[in-house]
Write a structure and sequence with these properties.
This protein has helices at 37-49, 74-87, 101-107, 121-128, 144-156, 184-191, 200-204, 207-220, 246-257, and strands at 13-15, 18-20, 26-30, 54-56, 91-94, 110-113, 134-137, 162-166, 196-198, 224-228. It is α/β, with parallel strands linked by helices. It has a domain at 13-26 and 92-257: TIM Barrel (Alpha-Beta Barrel), CATH 3.20.20.70. Strands 3-4-5-6-7-8-9-10 form an 8-stranded parallel β-barrel, surrounded by 7 helices. Strands 1-2 form a two-stranded antiparallel sheet. Strand 6 (110-113), helix 4 and strand 7 (134-137) form a beta-alpha-beta unit. Helix 4 (121-128) packs across helix 5 (144-156) and helix 8 (207-220) packs parallel to helix 9. The protein is globular. It binds phosphoenolpyruvate. Residues 32, 58, 94, 114-115, 137, 167, 199, 202 line the site of phosphoenolpyruvate (PEP). One of its GO terms (biological process) is aromatic amino acid family biosynthetic process.
């Protein structure tokens, strides 16, 4: 179902009217985690000023440590919905449990499946039945074939509105949080008709890598990028070191403004 072979044209996924794929280069930005209404609104305004057409933000955070901030749950979804009302930006947010899919889908414009859940097949199937577009991040230790098979689980349930997201994979290299597999973008685009976007924030894990990796994503023909921003990264409850702010955000905005088909 997701293979390019049996599909004439490339798919353009519409997220509440915002296209991902086709001639557009879509910027998705927002905080890694929803923390407070004020922080989320400030991050959304930053995202908008940088040219983002979709707001990201996690209310359910699948953290490596059980002692780390786990997200606000439904209260976080309500904050996102309020900020959407205020900014007009549709919401992309992660769901981590099949039992929460209906609830998250009732708030979200697009469901995000994170790297740690790429092969959570019950979750993929539930997301496939939720009636909302799905962003499927590549498992950090998954091959491209496994990634496409995971997308197939969603598609099999009748949902072809799937966006693939390359977010870096595990390698021996420790200088970066993950190794951005930039070649995965054209490889996945050749094998599948689905749009492929890049997450330079979670791959590099460092603010100063976000711009160079974003440029790489654009150069290689990605259909979009998803970037963390935070009004006060030094006090962020999740992934502050990779969040853009100030001059780095302005540099992203300047770059997005030069894209011929920026949304
Ligand atoms: C995220 O985007 O908030 C996230 C946790 O990403 P990943 O699943 O790629 O680690």
């Amino acid at each position: 179902l997701v293979s390019r072979e049996n599909h004439g044209s490339r798919t353009v996924v519409s997220v509440a009217g915002v296209p991902i794929g086709g001639d557009t280069m879509t910027l998705i930005a927002g905080p890694c985690a929803v923390e407070t209404p004020e922080q989320t609104l400030a991050a959304a305004m930053m995202a908008k000023s940088a040219g983002a057409s979709l707001l990201r933000g996690g209310a359910y955070k699948p953290r490596s440590s059980p002692y780390a901030f786990q997200g606000l749950g439904e209260a976080g979804l309500q904050i996102l919905a309020d900020v959407r009302e205020e900014t007009g930006l549709p919401i992309v947010t992660e769901v981590v449990d099949a039992h929460d899919v209906e609830l998250v889908a009732s708030y979200a414009d697009m469901l995000q499946i994170g790297t740690r859940n790429m092969q959570n097949f019950a979750l993929l199937q539930a997301a496939g039945e939720a009636g909302k577009p799905v962003m499927l991040k590549r498992g950090m230790s998954s091959t491209i074939e496994e990634w496409l098979m995971a997308a197939e689980y969603i598609a099999q349930r009748g949902n072809l509105d799937i966006v693939l997201c390359e977010r870096g994979i595990r390698t021996f290299e420790k200088a970066t949080r993950n190794t951005l597999d930039i070649s995965a973008v054209p490889v996945a685009q050749n094998l599948s008709h689905l749009p492929v976007i890049v997450d330079p924030s979670h791959s590099g894990g460092k603010r100063d890598l976000v711009l160079p990796l974003s440029r790489a994503a654009i150069a290689v023909g990605a259909d979009g990028i998803i970037v963390d921003v935070h009004p006060h990264p030094e006090t962020a409850l999740c992934d502050g070191p990779q969040a853009l702010v100030g001059a780095d955000l302005e540099a992203l905005a300047a770059m997005v403004a030069t894209l011929p088909a920026a949304v």
